Amino acid sequence: LACPASRFINNRMEMEKTDYRHYLAVVSKNIKTLAMLVPTRNFAVIKTFSSYTHTTHDIDVVVKSNVNVIKLKQLLDRELGQDNIIDLHDHVSWTGSAEISDEFFWSHLMLHKTGVQVPDTALDALIRIAHIPFETGSIRFGELLHIFRLLKKADISVIEKEANRCGWGKTFQRMRSLLEKLHTQLFLENRSRLTFPYHIPLTILIAAV
Q1: 137's torsion region: left (phi>0), alpha (psi -120 to 50) or beta?
Q2: What is the CA angle 172-132-174, rounded to 5?
Q3: Which of 89, 99, 140, 150 has a beta carbon 3.0–4.6 Å from 130's, enabling a disulfide?
Q4: Closest by alpha carbon to 55, among 83, 25, 84?
């Protein structure tokens, strides 16, 4: 028989599959349009593709410094109209200072099956972990599972070094401890009563530096 944690995970995944299929269709349309306007080597799509059914309300795209962000946004609006859900950025930041350096970002990319650049395992984990305390304050179920998978594969020392370099090493350690606690509760203690989105404790959010 499946353990409570397994049933909980399977039920959650079934609930999210329909939304995820629609989400992928919208993402595909947007990215194909973007790739017609800008060479794929000049941009990378972040926080969009996951190993589990996790959706976002927009498509975050980081572009190189030689791309005119204002002009590109105008072109996307013209081509996609109300279907344009691309949010353009020239670097990764949620607080006004870069939580991930441009050097680290552009050196940790790989090619996705769609033909566009996406973060490698280390960069993907770093972006998603930073995004939680500095912007959303919560984490959804599919994203949590995706982060668990990333952390199993990534070199933690590489991630930690970049977080320290960019000034949020303590917040990274707090988030890492929280993720380990959630993993234990979900998979080892069979606490299927965890509710999602899971809201990050205020102690972590207030101390997010």
Answers
A1: left
A2: 30
A3: 99
A4: 25
- pLDDT, tens digit, for every residue of 64-119? 999 999 999 999 999 999 999 999 999 999 887 889 999 999 999 999 998 999 99
Tell me the chain's radius of gyration from C-alpha atoms. 18
Calpha distance 90→189 (Å, rounded): 42
Give me the amino acid identity at 160: E
Residues near 53 by Cβ (< 8 Å), separated by ≥ 6?
13, 16, 17, 19, 20, 142
Measured CA to CA, the distance from residue 191 to residue 149 in angstroms comes to 19
Tokens at residue 183, please? 């993993």
Name residue 140's amino acid.
R
Which pLDDT tens digit goes with each residue over 128-148?
A: 999 999 999 999 988 999 999
Mark out the alpha helices in the chain (DSSP H runs).
Answer: 4-37, 69-80, 102-106, 121-131, 141-153, 156-165, 169-183, 202-206
Q: Any residues with CB less than 8 A from the CB of 47 and at least 6 apart, and which?
A: 56, 60, 127, 128, 131
At residue 98, the 3 state secondary structure works out as strand
CA 205 – CA 151 distance, rounded (Å):
21
